[in-house]
Amino acid sequence: MKTATNLNLFNTLTRRKEGFIPIEEGKVKLYTCGPTVYNYAHIGNFRAFLFEDLLKRWLKHYGLEVTHVMNITDVDDKTIKGSQKQGIPLQQYTAHYVEAFFEDIKVLNIELADFYPRATEHIPEMTALIKKLMGKGYAYRGEDGSIYFAINKFPDYGKLSHINIRELKSGARVRQDEYAKEEAQDFALWKAWSAEDRDAFWETEIGKGRPGWHVECSAMSMRYLGETFDIHCGGVDNIFPHHENEIAQSESATGKPFANYWLHNEHLLVEGKRMAKRFGNYYTLRDLLGKGYAPEAIRFLLLSTHYRQQFNFTFEGLEAAKSAVERLRNLVWRLREANGVGSDSNVVDLVSQVEVDFESAMNDDLNIGVALAALFDFVRDINALLDANKIKRQEAETVEKVITSIDDVLGVIGPTTTEETLPKEAEELIREREEARKTKNWKKADEIRLQLKAIGIVVEDTNAGVRWRLEKKT
Ligand code: AMP
Ligand code: ZN
């Protein structure tokens, strides 16, 4: 009998928190739905990718070995439409956004997955899966030449999204990738080529056409993780139809459970409405960097609300995130200079407290709010001891180690080196920027910030004045 870890995760399949039991002891197989590369990812998308990064970092911190697969959706209704609008081949169109995605995740300090399979490079796996489904009687060819999944053949259809099977219009068909629960119907596994698809087609054993979006994730996850794997993630908008359909296709083909735990993040909102490209209410990472916000602050903001809670993006929130990151970074700087008289056992007690509290909060379905509260209580108490000159060298080192270990999970502190000297030209630029700020010439100040960045110097405006540091070299 395998025993549950004391890590509890909320499973959308069962709608409750469950003790996590990996299939193979000590290992986790994780699949997360990746970006559809038809545009720059917005920060709502990054909320999903950052939640997954936090989950993965926590699993690793817990001592589990994680194999992480994130697909790249580089052919679907949206990418085809986008490439046609620009009048360029699909591959050329998506290549730009794939590159941008990798740049963005690096900036946000998101750990790389082990595999990034692209849909267009896995067509044989998809056609094999579809053939298997046809062979078993779960799929059929419609009059339009496309191949559909017959939802009434799979009695478990609806088990993830909890839609009522009796309300399903089986026999009716839907060809587009995205549709609402109320429109649940037989969905397209393979879309026969039509003139509007232009260059987006493959000549295959099952005909000339292209895969439906859902079959892409089934084929690619099973190719890299096996027929049953541990955790599957995505945003709540993926629950239906995308993940429901993934389950139907995969479990019908293999007769085995597909993924054991389904974790879904809630949406990032803007004024109460989901941030989405189609609503035009979105910010990309690049928009926020262009306004001078540091990636660490953006990362902190998007991570700091529990993943199953919605929250509104605001600039006040981003400012607060920026101060929180500064508080952590300042503490590190202060610790490096600490040389006090010693705290008796105060530091030891505080350290064990924060370790226990942070860990138990994270084990409770990544309860980041409680985990961060424990961390910032610790920061406050250590700062008070530093104010009283009570932290001796060795204690400062212990505290810094704890902060570093917690930041291995959060990834928000960023570079903290202090010993560099400022090049002459940079000194002059920083002085000019100060002048510009004094006269509220923000445009000039931002331009100078970019000039400094180009020579590897990051300036930050903190409550205690302007700080600078050399950009971390990776
Ligand atoms: P897409 O590129 O549209 O396939 O989406 C990538 C990921 O972002 C998916 O897991 C979506 O569920 C998620 N997502 C989309 N919009 C939001 C949002 N406003 N807040 C949080 N996650 C989102
Ligand atoms: Zn997917």
Radius of gyration from the CA trace? 25 Å
Number of DSSP E strands: 17
Q: Count of helices? A: 14
Distance from first to last alpha carbon: 44 Å
Q: Tell me, what's the shape?
A: globular
Structural class: alpha/beta
Percent in strands? 15-25%
Short précis:
The chain has 14 helices and 17 strands.
Structure description:
- The protein has 474 residues and is an alpha/beta fold.
- Helix content is 45%, strand content 16%.
- It is built from 14 helices and 17 strands.
- The chain has helices at residues 43-61, 77-86, 90-107, 123-135, 213-225, 239-254, 285-290, 295-303, 315-337, 346-363, 368-387, 393-410, 424-438, 442-454; strands at 8-11, 16-19, 27-32, 65-70, 139-141, 147-149, 173-174, 186-192, 202-204, 207-211, 229-235, 259-265, 268-270, 273-274, 311-312, 457-462, 465-470.
- Strands 5, 6, 7, 8, 9 and 10 form a 6-stranded mixed beta sheet that branches.
- A hairpin with a 2-residue loop joins β13 (268-270) and β14 (273-274).
- The longest helix is centred in the C-terminal third of the chain and has 23 residues, at 315-337.
- The radius of gyration is 25 Å and the shape is globular.
- The protein starts with 7 loop residues before the first strand and ends with a strand.
- The mean pLDDT is 93.
- Residues 33, 217, 242 line the site of zinc ion.
